[in-house]
Specification:
single chain; mainly alpha
């Protein structure tokens, strides 16, 4: 049999696991970002604080996006495995 599409579900699962790790590390970086210095009170103090908050928000958003991608990859691996199992049953029934 020459399949039109070959999917390595174990590799997809390993990739999803690596993505999950990256998501956790990215989100953790947001909380590990040092706070903006409030003293001495310079003209740029408020701007620096806003920049830190923006970076933290973007890191949390990026981490959530990577986590969602990992979830989708895991779901795709499961769907491919289920499709293979159904195809195997159909093939056995035709013999």
């Amino acid at each position: 049999m020459n399949p039109d599409l070959e999917v390595h579900t174990e590799e997809l699962r390993r990739t999803a696991s690596a993505l999950t790790t990256t998501a956790v590390e990215t989100a953790a970086t947001a909380t590990a970002t040092p706070p903006a210095e409030r003293t001495p009170r310079w003209r740029t103090t408020d701007a620096a604080a806003l920049a830190v908050e923006a970076v933290q928000q973007q890191l949390r958003h990026l981490g959530a996006g990577v986590e969602e991608t990992a979830r989708l990859v895991t779901a795709a691996a499961a769907a491919y495995a289920e499709a293979d199992a159904r195809a195997a049953v159909r093939l056995r029934l035709t013999r």
